[in-house]
């Protein structure tokens, strides 16, 4: 019986006679059977290893979070804080605690030498509504653990907008307390027109907690231009699990400047593509019979749930288990779980996690040599378009919402392969540390194509006389962050050849619009009453390359076409040739991928060459959908989104420029707290410690296939960092997972497996021996 289920699981497709009923648990059970008998190693945990150093990038500990919380709340701190649960707009309260980035200048002497382990600091965001001029202010608290030498200082040095860690009240995060302050005005407006909203949309809004309410109110960002005013653009949807897909044609615009809610006022109401500055004007148009709801929205959202649809039928053989990637020989990577350190096939790296940025990688080395000091997300942005206030107003910077906190439990076998190592993620939340179990997965996966292969000689029955083929696989680390409507899947893959591939995919619900029949230029109709609103996604990353050491340059190799003559072709006269024009960039700049891919960009070591005298480097290989923000001068992305406006950028590394964006920048398009463009102040990037900033993204040309949710196959973007003369030859010669096949003069075929044969798994059961190798061999 045991054998049968293992066979069923592994070989359902190859041996259709073995019945494999669709069962998502099949693999799990099969793997635990194998591990029970210490057989194929299918579910053995990854071997452990001890990290060379204590992870200096780690998150602050749960004890530190609580101690910092207590310290800032103690009267002696002078911060005059109110417990968040009891606070109002005009109190001072903590919004969040996170781990502060540690200066590279302090970390390098520690990881590369005998320097002391750098101290950890917390960053604490305090909403200071209780001050005469209400603001949000960030603080750094450390060194940790809390002791008599721990200080609370303003955290200003990472922000270059001129006001340091301070954000004016109107520009600060629009939290539940601000929302609550605007609710009475919204309720009064919506109650006064409830007869109209019921007549037009069969819905009313009387307050989010009111039983009569059957519309959901949704807000957007930015809520301010420069922090001197604040507004709220509200759209309405039918409530439910797929609310994002059932918007209605009704928008309310409020002015919500300042902390005194009695001064808030209605800016206007929008419906039928018309703007009504007052309730009276809306009512007059309604009474005159000018308002209609031509494409009623559906309240039933079954069509928009990610469930099987009976009316679509079934596909032949689809009741069988789909192919799977399993680590048959046991895991080939090692982990130091405590230090969050990973070793895989020559790769070593540390991981870290923060509320604002999610997963970060540090000290990425290949065969003992550093390639990257840091690889981290900086922003996940989206900007929408439409002739209606919500879409036109919408720009998201997902760090604003603490994107790191949105990765939750992954589905083994679907989000990540069966047998993946699933790790918890943790982040500070209030006075404690929150755990999201199994929210990060690590797994090695078959690449689906050989790393390399070649055949020679075609005169035999096999079509070759010699053939070499090397197995391709990569180690992946993955998180999926569901920020509101979207699910962003971040995947970092470390390939056997020394290349790193970063990909981001988007699924989840479109932020859609009600359907307007004359607005096809903003996206297609995608259901009864819904239009897919066009938008850009831009994902910004930081890649602090340290090729061997910190002194690097950015090399541009342009393919140019020149007219030349060659004396051995006198008949041609002057003719066109391709040449490589290789130069080093001199100063910091933003730049784009060249048309037709005709420029190669590489980060090269300034002073390290390979055996052939070539500068050792890593190439930035564009992947799918390498875009930047389409719009250059929108009032909603004017100056706080500079990082989104080029494909690439290179700057000198500085301790006070760790981040490309600030998480509260979104509400300050005209007066950013942090201005990426200020990084470009003419400093040299030749033979310096340089940072490459790059954007991935998608022009989301919405389609009916975004219903019910956007598909990961199409909404995908990627980049590869590949060795470029970093080594003396391709990094495959030391791999034994390969075949060398020969056909001799008599036509007989033989092959070498270098000792890596397909495994034989013994299962002690009624059926004595399971030879997986036998089943799988051709
Ligand atoms: C909130 O205020 C109430 C009433 O003053 C008090 O009993 C309670 O302890 C406060 N909560 C916190 C978390 O301080
Ligand atoms: C402390 O904060 C409260 C609001 O929570 C404010 O009314 C009070 O003036 C503040 N006290 C001082 C000394 O700033
Ligand atoms: C929605 O609420 C309004 C006002 O309470 C009510 O008149 C209407 O019948 C409700 N519609 C549905 C579908 O429940
Ligand atoms: C992961 O989280 C779960 C649930 O909170 C907990 O039981 C488990 O001990 C955690 N694992 C580790 C390694 O901390
Ligand atoms: C080469 O010369 C030909 C003839 O003058 C001209 O048409 C062509 O544009 C030239 N190509 C380049 C790359 O300059
Ligand atoms: C090579 O590139 C450099 C830098 O862009 C440029 O100044 C130079 O003119 C180029 N040379 C040729 C032959 O195009
Ligand atoms: C490279 O290193 C060597 C040996 O340390 C030194 O002599 C040389 O000046 C360095 N060159 C550069 C460009 O830094
Ligand atoms: C990090 O470096 C910046 C810029 O030099 C400095 O202002 C800051 O105090 C340093 N942080 C720590 C924790 O030492
Ligand atoms: Cu999208």
UniProtKB/TrEMBL annotation:
<dbReference type="GO" id="GO:0009308">
    <property type="term" value="P:amine metabolic process"/>
</dbReference>
<dbReference type="GO" id="GO:0008131">
    <property type="term" value="F:primary methylamine oxidase activity"/>
</dbReference>
<keyword id="KW-0560">Oxidoreductase</keyword>
<dbReference type="Pfam" id="PF09248">
    <property type="entry name" value="DUF1965"/>
</dbReference>
<feature type="domain" description="DUF1965">
    <location>
        <begin position="245"/>
        <end position="304"/>
    </location>
</feature>
<dbReference type="InterPro" id="IPR000269">
    <property type="entry name" value="Cu_amine_oxidase"/>
</dbReference>
<feature type="active site" description="Proton acceptor">
    <location>
        <position position="398"/>
    </location>
</feature>
<feature type="signal peptide">
    <location>
        <begin position="1"/>
        <end position="20"/>
    </location>
</feature>
<dbReference type="InterPro" id="IPR036460">
    <property type="entry name" value="Cu_amine_oxidase_C_sf"/>
</dbReference>
<dbReference type="GO" id="GO:0005507">
    <property type="term" value="F:copper ion binding"/>
</dbReference>
<dbReference type="InterPro" id="IPR015798">
    <property type="entry name" value="Cu_amine_oxidase_C"/>
</dbReference>
<feature type="modified residue" description="2',4',5'-topaquinone">
    <location>
        <position position="486"/>
    </location>
</feature>
<dbReference type="GO" id="GO:0005886">
    <property type="term" value="C:plasma membrane"/>
</dbReference>
<keyword id="KW-0801">TPQ</keyword>
<keyword id="KW-0479">Metal-binding</keyword>
<dbReference type="InterPro" id="IPR016182">
    <property type="entry name" value="Cu_amine_oxidase_N-reg"/>
</dbReference>
<dbReference type="Pfam" id="PF01179">
    <property type="entry name" value="Cu_amine_oxid"/>
</dbReference>
<comment type="similarity">
    <text>Belongs to the copper/topaquinone oxidase family.</text>
</comment>
<dbReference type="GO" id="GO:0048038">
    <property type="term" value="F:quinone binding"/>
</dbReference>
<protein>
    <recommendedName>
        <fullName>Amine oxidase</fullName>
        <ecNumber>1.4.3.-</ecNumber>
    </recommendedName>
</protein>
<feature type="active site" description="Schiff-base intermediate with substrate; via topaquinone">
    <location>
        <position position="486"/>
    </location>
</feature>
<dbReference type="InterPro" id="IPR015328">
    <property type="entry name" value="DUF1965"/>
</dbReference>
<keyword id="KW-0732">Signal</keyword>
<keyword id="KW-0186">Copper</keyword>
<feature type="domain" description="Copper amine oxidase catalytic">
    <location>
        <begin position="324"/>
        <end position="730"/>
    </location>
</feature>
């Amino acid at each position: 019986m045991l054998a049968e289920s293992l066979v069923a699981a592994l070989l359902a497709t190859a041996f259709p006679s073995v019945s494999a009923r669709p069962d998502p648990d099949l693999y799990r059970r099969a793997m635990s059977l194998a591990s029970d008998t210490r057989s194929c190693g299918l579910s053995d945990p990854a071997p452990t290893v001890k990290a060379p150093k204590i992870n200096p990038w780690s998150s602050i500990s749960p004890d530190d979070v609580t101690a910092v919380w207590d310290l800032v709340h103690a009267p002696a701190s002078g911060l005059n804080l109110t417990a968040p649960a009891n606070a109002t707009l005009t109190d001072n309260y903590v919004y969040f605690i996170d781990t502060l980035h540690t200066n590279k200048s302090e970390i390098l002497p520690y990881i590369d030498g005998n320097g002391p382990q750098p101290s950890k600091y917390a960053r604490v965001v305090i909403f200071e509504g209780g001050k005469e001029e209400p603001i949000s202010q960030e603080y750094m608290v450390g060194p940790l653990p809390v002791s008599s030498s721990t200080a609370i200082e303003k955290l200003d040095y990472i922000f270059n907008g001129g006001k340091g860690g301070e954000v004016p009240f109107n520009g600060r995060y629009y939290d539940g307390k601000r929302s609550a302050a605007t609710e009475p005005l919204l309720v009064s407006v919506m109650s006064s027109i409830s007869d109209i909203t019921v007549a037009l949309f069969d819905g009313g809004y009387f307050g989010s907690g009111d039983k009569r309410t059957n519309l959901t109110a949704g807000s957007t960002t930015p809520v301010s231009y420069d922090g001197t005013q604040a507004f709220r653009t509200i759209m309405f949807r039918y409530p439910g699990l797929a609310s994002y897909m059932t918007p209605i044609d009704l928008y309310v615009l409020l002015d919500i400047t300042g902390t005194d809610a009695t001064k808030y006022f209605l800016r206007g109401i929008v419906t039928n593509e018309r703007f009504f500055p007052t309730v009276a004007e809306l009512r007059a148009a309604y009474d005159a019979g000018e308002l209609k709801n031509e494409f009623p929205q559906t309240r039933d959202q079954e069509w928009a749930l990610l469930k099987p649809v009976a009316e679509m039928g079934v596909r032949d053989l689809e009741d069988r288990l789909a192919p799977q990637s399993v680590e048959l020989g046991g895991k080939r990577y090692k982990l130091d779980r405590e230090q969050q350190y990973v070793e895989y096939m020559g790769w070593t790296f540390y991981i870290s996690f923060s509320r604002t940025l999610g997963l970060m990688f540090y000290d990425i080395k290949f065969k003992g040599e550093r390639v990257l000091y840091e690889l981290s997300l900086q922003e996940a942005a989206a900007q929408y378009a439409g002739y209606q206030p919500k879409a036109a107003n919408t720009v998201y910077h997902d760090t604003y919402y603490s994107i790191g906190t949105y990765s939750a439990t992954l589905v083994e076998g679907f989000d990540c392969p069966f047998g993946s190592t699933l790790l918890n993620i943790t982040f500070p939340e209030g006075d404690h540390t929150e755990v999201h179990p199994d929210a990060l997965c690590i797994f090695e996966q078959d690449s689906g194509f050989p790393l390399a292969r070649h055949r020679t000689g075609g005169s035999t029955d096999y079509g070759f006389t010699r053939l070499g083929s090397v197995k391709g696989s990569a180690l992946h680390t993955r998180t999926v962050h569901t920020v509101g409507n979207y699910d962003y899947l971040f995947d970092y893959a470390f390939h056997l050849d020394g290349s790193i591939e970063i990909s981001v995919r988007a699924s989840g619900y479109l932020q859609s619009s009600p359907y307007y029949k004359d607005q096809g230029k903003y996206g297609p109709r995608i259901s009864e009453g819904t239009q897919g609103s066009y938008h850009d996604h831009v994902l910004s990353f930081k890649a602090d390359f340290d090729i061997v050491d910190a002194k690097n340059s950015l090399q541009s190799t342009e393919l140019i076409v020149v007219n030349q003559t060659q004396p051995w072709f006198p008949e041609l006269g002057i003719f066109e040739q391709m040449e490589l024009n290789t130069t080093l960039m001199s100063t910091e700049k933003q730049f784009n991928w060249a048309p037709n891919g005709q420029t190669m960009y590489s980060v090269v070591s300034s002073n390290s060459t390979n055996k052939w005298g070539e500068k050792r480097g890593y190439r930035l290989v564009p992947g799918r959908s390498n875009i930047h923000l389409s719009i250059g001068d929108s009032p909603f992305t004017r100056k706080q989104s500079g990082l989104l406006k080029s494909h690439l950028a290179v700057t000198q590394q500085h301790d006070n420029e760790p981040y490309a964006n600030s998480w509260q920048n979104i509400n300050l398009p005209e007066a950013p707290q942090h201005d990426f463009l200020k990084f470009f102040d003419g400093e040299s990037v030749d033979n310096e410690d340089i940072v490459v900033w790059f954007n991935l993204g998608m022009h989301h040309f919405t389609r009916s296939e975004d219903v019910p949710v956007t598909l990961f196959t199409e909404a995908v973007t990627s980049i590869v960092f590949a060795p470029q003369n970093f080594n003396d030859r391709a990094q495959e010669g030391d791999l034994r997972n390969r075949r060398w096949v020969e056909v001799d003069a008599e036509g007989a075929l033989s092959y070498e497996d270098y000792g890596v044969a397909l495994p034989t798994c013994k299962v002690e059961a009624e059926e004595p021996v399971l030879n997986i190798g036998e089943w799988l061999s051709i």
